[in-house]
Specification:
The structure is a single chain. The chain has one domain. It has six helices and no strands. It has 138 residues and is an all-alpha fold.
């Protein structure tokens, strides 16, 4: 009898949990729009391409080896962009955020990203990354 009561309770709770998850998911999508997650992903691809370009230049390769390398990198880059496009990554990332953040926490993050400092945050983070690269080279 106790087990039946628990199962019934969980079944009754499910619609409320689904609504909470849907609300949290919607808030996460708003936060992603504010932080322009798609542009950040595109920036990552550009950095990856630049890294491979530098790699091709610094390696001591024959013209034939360089052509093979560049062909491979082009195919790798295209496959990565398809398999890890924002359309492919968005839902799994939202799923991960739903597991970690409450709707209230996401709303607080949204409020931050709407603040003057929050609006500057993506550019500040890029500057910070560039600065870390400078330290890494030294």
């Amino acid at each position: 009898m106790k087990q039946i009561a628990i199962v019934l309770f969980l079944l009754l709770l499910t619609p409320f949990q689904s609504k909470a998850d849907a609300d949290t998911r919607a808030a996460i999508e708003r936060m992603f729009a504010l932080t322009d997650m798609q542009a950040m992903l595109d920036s990552t691809y550009a950095q990856m391409d630049a890294m491979f370009g530098r790699m091709a230049q610094t390696q001591n390769m024959s013209a034939e080896e360089r052509a093979i390398f560049e062909s491979y990198i082009t195919k790798f880059s295209q496959a990565t962009r398809e398999l890890m496009s924002w359309e492919e990554m968005k839902e799994p990332i939202i799923d991960a955020y739903v597991q970690v953040y409450t709707k209230q926490e996401v709303e607080e993050l949204i409020a931050f990203y709407q603040s003057p400092t929050g609006k500057r945050c993506p550019n500040l983070c890029k500057r910070q990354c560039r600065q870390c690269k400078v330290f890494h080279k030294n």
